[in-house]
# Entry
Amino acid sequence: MDTTVFIYIMDFIGTAAFAISGAIAGIRKNMDIFGVNILAVLTATGGGIIRDLIIGSTPPKAFTNPVFVLVAAITANIVFLTVFWSHKSGVKFSGKTRAIYDRIFFWCDTVGLAAFTVDGVHAGLEPSLVSNAFLIVFLGVVTGVGGGVFRDVLSLEMPVIFVKHIYACASIVGAVVTYVWYMASNSGAASLVAGFFVTVVIRYLAMHFGWNLPKISNNGKSAW
Amino acid sequence: MDTTVFIYIMDFIGTAAFAISGAIAGIRKNMDIFGVNILAVLTATGGGIIRDLIIGSTPPKAFTNPVFVLVAAITANIVFLTVFWSHKSGVKFSGKTRAIYDRIFFWCDTVGLAAFTVDGVHAGLEPSLVSNAFLIVFLGVVTGVGGGVFRDVLSLEMPVIFVKHIYACASIVGAVVTYVWYMASNSGAASLVAGFFVTVVIRYLAMHFGWNLPKISNNGKSAW
Amino acid sequence: MDTTVFIYIMDFIGTAAFAISGAIAGIRKNMDIFGVNILAVLTATGGGIIRDLIIGSTPPKAFTNPVFVLVAAITANIVFLTVFWSHKSGVKFSGKTRAIYDRIFFWCDTVGLAAFTVDGVHAGLEPSLVSNAFLIVFLGVVTGVGGGVFRDVLSLEMPVIFVKHIYACASIVGAVVTYVWYMASNSGAASLVAGFFVTVVIRYLAMHFGWNLPKISNNGKSAW
# Structure
């Protein structure tokens, strides 16, 4: 199958996944249905807009192809209405519902990160754009983490990229795998899928086993 | 009259209005006169800079035409000095002064939103740029809300777009009206004025009558 | 010596200095080694990325020349490991260590501000880009303060530009000096060095003598 199709699929998956994470973040901040839509759309399109501005491809895809904004908005409304009606119809807020939202948030954030990371790497592979492996990886990472940074900064939360272990790390490894695989096999589709799964798996394993990176702690006191 | 002149007037009105809202936000955060200037300039030029980056028109207008930065800075200084001298000369801080600042902030924020929304729609109407109605509206909304998002994120406040009912909503309706009017009448000036007033009126009515959009509440508890 | 070489040196100095300030900000927020790296890289490259997006030079330098990202990352790791090992080997957290970090942060932030300010002015001097003195200075200031704004917004701190007296002010004076010197002498190198030192000296003097700009205070109460 054509690489372009796979990039489109990745964009689509990443958009929907980040839209869900943005919608959950908005609901958590008690935003109304419209605020939830806006946050979801910005989260879903943020990474791609940053990517397009960086490579000088203006207007960004999000402004030339309505499907991404539409997918994000429809997704956000489904999430909002599901949560709205389930609580309306008697589901109580509890540690259990909270854990469910946490889990959905984690998976959507991870899938969005992975999809946009490999997408960003392929945007950097465009002929005559950047010829340096290091910087193609950098573009992949910025595209991957962009949506989440938008979401967190706009909802006044510490960006997940700084506090969740192995977030940008997973993105970097995924970007490297995508790039190396593409260079070795010249198969765009396979490299996208490989990079995507590597990113997801690393992030899942890090969460599951509680992998930690070194941190400087002042005996548990946060301000120093 | 020429459409270009009307766009210029809208830019001018939006710049001054957003500068006042930025100056009030800065004064509220106890910034000094210089911080107030910077915040006002960034609020006033933010939406336009985002618009120009998106349509690939670099350097952005704010950097090629000094009048916008100048208008914003002069406005900010007038606001700062007025507040400074009025309190110096005996006006006490009270619920009443606070309500006055709130009201000025509301109107300036609303006028800025409306002016930049219609301005953004017309930037998207440029020949051969975007041909999709959906996306022209999206560009209008991003341009309209951009300055306020800059102001709120930079002063560490939850962006007004997420928490005030019918903010982005008013911008969307105003953008649609501008676009449809222009397509139907081919009159740039009339479409700008129509879209501007529709945005302002919707936002005023929403505030006045306390219109609300559905929201998911955990019995008043905010974090869940 | 060639102006290009001096611009390169300024970029290099600014990148390293902002990377240190970003690393310290990250360590203060208890980020792990990876978060510290990301924040340092974004702080160090933020001003330059904003500059390149504004003048339409895409992809930004940070994406075409790996040296800046590398310098920022290496610097961040040196800072992290130094702090990590010094506390591991018995140095206690105290008012004294805190004061040392504060002082290093101040100097690095100041040097980064100065280096990117003069760099931004020269980017605006490129033939046929902007011909207006006012706007060349504006580009210098935006480039100078951009990295610090990224750093502060991403770590949920009030941007230093709004609260530290004579921060943007020093940048403006430095930008003016750079521009005027260049116009008068046509020596790029000398104008860069002059603007750099003027910015640093003004900021140092302001800190040392506690210069203040007028501010509106509600008898010490912050919210009004």
In short: Residues 9 and 95 of chain C are 35 Å apart (CA to CA). Chain C has one domain: 3-223. The first helix of chain C runs from residue 3 to 28.
